Amino acid sequence: MRLKNLALLSTSLVALGLSATASQAAATMGRVDMGFTEWFDNYDYGGSNSRDYNWTSVTGSARVNIPYNDRTNLQLDFFGDASLHGSGGEGANGIGNGGVGAHINWRDPSEGLLGVFMATGRVWDFYASAPAFMAGLEGQYYCGHWSFYGQAGYMDSDGNYRFLENAGFVRGLVSYYPSSKLKVTVGLAYIDGELDHTYNATSWAWQAGGEYRFGKSVPVAVGLKYQGRDAQVHYSPSYTPELNSNEVTLSFSFLFGGDSIEESDEMGTSTEIPNFDWFRQPYD
Prior knowledge:
Elements: H1 2-23, E1 29-44, E2 50-67, E3 72-83, E4 95-108, E5 112-125, E6 128-143, E7 146-157, E8 165-176, E9 182-195, E10 199-214, E11 220-234, E12 242-256, H2 261-266
């Protein structure tokens, strides 16, 4: 059911983006992304007690930037991913998430932007799921063909003992545009929160990827991105279970607006929602 809904949402947003491109001002820009992700998870509980899982997910997202005036923008995000099969044994629901987000920012395309963001959705992990929320501040600085992006925010779930709650995070991304068609990005994040209202939980997350744009009438881009995360729950000084998660995503994107991949970013949908997979933790 989740896969059907995700496919329907992506198809509808492609049609909406084509319509918006034809009827709206040039500053209204958007993108629709679809792809497949291969996951590799290792749960380490100390000694020989370790579990490994891998699975494939289908991913989808859409973003549209709606200018209020020459400097003020509203960006809407829709996102989700769902594993193609259950992971964790009989009766498992698999792993994934889905949600919506919004950004409000002031932007000078020649300098950068300052703004706020928020997102809400649902995340599931094996046999459990929970509503989740995040919000924060973000800013970008454009320097030649370089773009520097920072976020700081708060994230919380409903307190289910499998998911992160009452957490703060900081995140930084650096992008470089070697040509009008190519973009490469690296990033690093740190998350600090709680599990089960009691135990401290910390994570480091990192990413690296590239995107190449081709096509003219309806520009299309292909992307390859790696994301990793090392999460620990500090139950006691001698017991700290760990989740090491790695994901590789191959994606195809439809871009609406902008004559280059750099222009599509710096004048359109330049902001994004952090990975909702950050909520999954190595629960005891």
